[in-house]
Amino acid sequence: MINLNTSEQNTWCPGCHNFVILSCAKKAVSELINEGHAKHEDFVTVTGIGCHAKLYDYINTSGFYGLHGRAIPTANGITLGNPKLKVMTFAGDGDVYAEGISHFINAARVNPNYALFVNNNKIFALTTGQVTPTSEKGFPGRSTPKGNPFTPMNPVSLALEAGASFVAREYSLDVKNLTETMKAAIKHKGFAYVDIIQPCITFHNFTEYVKDKMYRLNGPFEYKKAMEKAKEWDYSDSADAKIPVGIFYEEERPTLSDLFDNKNWSEAYPERKINSALWERFKV
Ligand code: SF4
To answer: Are residues 169 and 151 part of one domain?
Structure first.
């Protein structure tokens, strides 16, 4: 039995949903190892900055505690350096949907081979409650005491639009389904994005709202239907919202690592004319 615990003192608020996400991540890793899918030494945990990022301290894998908004380029580099690694990238909504949004869009576009889990509590929690791009309009965050004037973005439909090859949404307290979707995301060949709705019980507790509005998808779907489902919830707090959870979309296509492998480049995109002399200069 692999011991995925660490000796670091846990500083999350008592009852924080991050405890459950951590536990699901450990269960997913443990089961994938036991099922022979990967070895313990294959796993790498990458984080950004925020409450989510302490996961780096609490799970016994190799890892990289990244910069704010920069978990994605860090993970890109790791997976390009060694495509055989199983990279689990964790980020927060204030982290990846604000400062890191260009990395998010381009990762979806170029398909690096790793899982991105976004612990989305619709707030900057570590800094005690400022609004993020997924905060609902009117939310009185610390930076907007008269209410958030902005409409939230929908990161799930954005991921689909940008070309993500695996797109899912889960809820932080649904242990069984969150674990299964994490395993599917880690096993997926390509950029596997999971938006984990994780109410912050200290600064933005919308737990009852999610539980009331959530329903499970029987996906994955073909692209058009996946987009329709993704648009069912606009990340607002409207009274008649429906929040679909589960896998929206999955496809296989060449990964970033495939495209940077000189041998596979022409196979992946035979219509492209590669300047092989130039490529040889930059090849590592
Ligand atoms: Fe969890 Fe919120 Fe506390 Fe951060 S501030 S540890 S997200 S409950």
So the answer is: yes
Strand-pairing partners, residue 171, are 197
Judged against a pLDDT cut of 60, whether residue 265 lies above it is answered with no
More confident residue, 120 or 261: 120
Q: Which residue has the tokens 């994490």?
A: 182
Report the CATH number at residue 170: 3.40.50.970
Residue-range definition of the domain harbouring residue 143:
18-253
Q: What is the pLDDT of residues 79-95, one digit of tens each?
A: 988 899 999 999 999 99
> Is the separation of the CB atoms in 25 and 55 below 8 Å?
yes
| Cα(118) to centroid(ligand 1), Å | 14
| Cβ of residue 200 lying under 6 Å from some atom of ligand 1 | yes
Closest CA to 109 of 187, 169, 193, 188: 193
The residue type at 187: K
Q: What is the mean pLDDT of residues 65-77?
A: 96
Task: Return the residue whose CA atom lies nearest to atom 6 of ligand 1.
Answer: 12
The 191-197 sheet, strands edge to edge: 62-65, 43-47, 86-92, 114-120, 191-197, 166-171, 243-250, 214-216
**DSSP letter at 48?**
-
| Cβ(205) – ligand 1 distance below 6 Å | no
159 sits in which H/E element:
helix 155-162
What digits encode the pLDDT tens for the residues 17-29? 999 999 999 999 9
Same domain for 83 and 134, yes or no, is: yes
Mean pLDDT for the stretch of residues 134-146: 95
Q: How far apart are alpha carbons 282 and 284 in whole angstroms?
A: 6
Distance separating alpha carbons of residues 12 and 8, to the nearest angstrom: 12
